[in-house]
# Entry
Amino acid sequence: MAAAWAHTPGTPAELTGRLGAFTSSVRPEVLVPLLVLAGLYALGWWRLSRRAQRSQSARRPAFMLVGVAALAAALLSPLDALADRLFVAHMIQHMLLIVVAAPALLLADPFPLTLWALPHSWRLRIARHVTRRSVAGRVWRVATAMSLTWIASACVLWGWHLPTAYDAALSHRWLHDVEHATFFLSALLFWWPVIHPAPHFRGPAPYPALVVYLVLGAFQTAALGLLITLAPTLLYQSYAGAGALEDQTRGGVVMWGLGGAIDMLAVLFLLYVALGSTSPPTPAAGGAGRRGENRRTADERVFAAAPRPSRR
# Structure
């Protein structure tokens, strides 16, 4: 018993080391925005739930919880420090950002719900100034075009995995943060046409186009993962050392398997919905073909998450 106790972790030195590792991974510049986002979303959901005529589904808050948890696991947990030493840990971190956090947050439909957390006058002001015909609406319509989002996500993924760029990111904290930010933002753009959350500045794409879009996205991710897995030499010198090549192979498998699997699950879901539906997706509010529709009503529907409540 004494021998077992002697080898049980929990001595003051070990506890101090664990606490130091935990606190070093808690970065205020990441933690504070996550808390603000989660707080605004929760407040908006609470306001809508109080005013809605029927009970609200918990599906969207569940997706928000998954998205925030994935971001926290990727950027605030010990995984962030481990990623500097193990390539496979770094690939898990990237996949959490790209194929878990980004689509989960979009499925939570965050923009209208966080908007409802703001004062009534602010909501009306935003709805008046951020419309389909505004500069923001036109820019976002272009930025979320499927051809551009696919190219942008592929360029970001492949560009940061070039050995020179990858090793530079591991050598400089600020560049590593830029890498993670571009991974996450490009993933948001990639998943936006598929999930089609508010604001609806662009109509939904047809199911066949979305299936092709996702299959090509899964192919380019799997291709990069396969190249890394089969590489006969070490690609990233930052991980040079014993077992580095095996670690690189495992990291490639994570990218190839996990990234491709989630993309293909999305493809299967789209096929299920497409085959089970009797009509194409409903056009976005205010879209072409609705002649005579009031422009203000169409613009307000861009931000709609629930029926407009009475002024509070």
Remarks:
- Residues 9-282+291-301 form one domain.
- The CA atoms of residues 140 and 242 lie 47 Å apart.
